[in-house]
Each structure stands twice: as C-alpha cells, then as structure tokens.
C-alpha cells in the first residue's frame, strides 16, 4: 500500500455558494472507494482532489481521531460483501491524513470482519465491530488509540454486529445487527453486554447529544422485493436508552441504510429506493433519498434526491453541510443542510474504481 502517484484531477462539481464554503479552507473530506481499495482526499472548500491512498481490499468505514490526528479505515473482506465474500479480513489501516500515507496496519486476528468504528476521544479508545465465528459471537474490539493496540473485547451476542455507536459520555455502546432481532447494548466501562433493544434486523444508528435516545434504521435491507408483505414498516426506530425499548418510529417510504446526527440536532437518513424490473427479480436501484428530521421534535424537515444506494452519511463539524456516499452510483452528494439544496456531487469513479462508501470530515490542523 502506498500513496498514489496519480495527479490531482479537476474538481467534479462547480464551487458551492460562498456562504456554505466560508471558513472551510484547509478542511478535507476523505472518501472510501470500496471496489478500488483506496481512500480519496478532497479539499472541502473547492472539491478538488488532493490525492489518493491505497489500502487493503474491501475498505468500508472511516473514523478520524483528532487527538492523534490519524484516520482509521476498516477492511471487512478479501472480496465480496456480507454473506457473499471471499473470506473475512482481520485488519484495520491507520492513515496520516495530512501526508496521505499509511502509518500502520493493525491486525486484529483472530477477530475478523471489522466494520463499524466509534471513537471515545476523552478516554482515547476506538471501538471496532467484528463478526462472530463458530467459537464466539460477534463483538466489539477495543483499541488504545495512543498505542494502536487492542486492549479488550466486548461480546454482542449476535453473529454480525455491523454499525457501532457510543453515547457522548463514553459509557454505553450500541451495535446494530443485520439478522438478529435486537440492538446490542453494552456497558463500555465494565466491558459487558447489558440489554437487548428489540428491533427487526438493523442497519445504521446514531445517539442523541444527551445520550437519552438512539435512532436505528430498521428493518435490515436484505430483502427489497418478493416478500414485501412480510417486512415490518421501513423507518427509524427511536430507542429510549434508559429502558432499551422502542418508543417511536420515524416513517420512511423506502429501506433506510445510514443514519447520522449532526452537531445542530438534525437527523439524516439515507433511503435506498428499488424500482420493479422485469429482468432483475429484486428490482433495480433508483435515485436514493436523503430525509432530514429534527432529533428533538422528531419532525420531518424535508428531503432531497441523491445518488444510487446511499451507504454512509457524515457532516461538517458546524452541521451546515451534509455528505452522502452512494455505493451504486459511486458518488458523494454535498448538501446544504439549511436550505436542503445540493451544492455539488463528487464522482468517485473518476478518480478510483467504483464503490463510494466510508466518509470522514477532517478539519485543518490547528
């Protein structure tokens, strides 16, 4: 793995209005290309490609650690995807985002299938979800970000924990499970699972700023058509963190995959739309939808058409701009979250192999 020698390409979209770009000079957006096994770095003010870094095959998610100023990238499989892969990987790649060079590849073996990432910057701990095997359930590996070494493991009592999130206090973690009918609730201080929040198989999730609510995309997107009558209603389950029970559902017209909460309290949900197709039994991808809710009132604020197959969402630290990575179209939509207007679109396939997935917003060095 090495930094690509490919020269920066022209930006893929016109500059956004100055009001949305103000103060972003030097900030960087990192984007995973799952098929191309690269992480591309774009100037957040101009959308100009700064360079790409080669990583291990099948990179999935990203997490930026501002304390160590390092970018973590999970690689889940040698090839393929969940339940249809060429073997599970065991590594997490650490990248210096300023030089765009790989610092280290951390091997988590015998753990495998790393995917979700959640950072506790105060305790300097990184949590990585890993898949289970015949002799142990899925779980979460705990990494000391200073030494970059595993220091613990927490079982989640499900075979395939996928996304993972922690509360702002760093005391409780939540793992979504594709097939298991619950979200795993774990005590991060004691290192044990404490509860199951019952939801149909789940995808993305986010925790409210005060830690009292967890927003979970459910049900699992494994079946898009053919058994629609058997599926629970698509939407976002709202879990009371105190009781680990669902207290509300934010409705959606389509399967919800990623969920993200901004610093300003807006809940962003990526809906994956499938249209009937006589050739493909499960239908074909149609333009997705970014739905925006108020996390406090749970009221829908608006929606916007985006690329095909939204998988990951992030936002700028001030909560003004949202970024949606769409794996099928291999694009990243850049959205003004105040006006719900699209400011631009990054065509990742111009710079790397298709498969836009993980995202990380990296503020400029202090």
From TrEMBL:
Where does the record place the region Disordered? 1-21
Q: What is this protein called?
A: YncE family protein
- Origin organism is Streptomyces musisoli
Write the lineage as a comma-separated list: Bacteria, Bacillati, Actinomycetota, Actinomycetes, Kitasatosporales
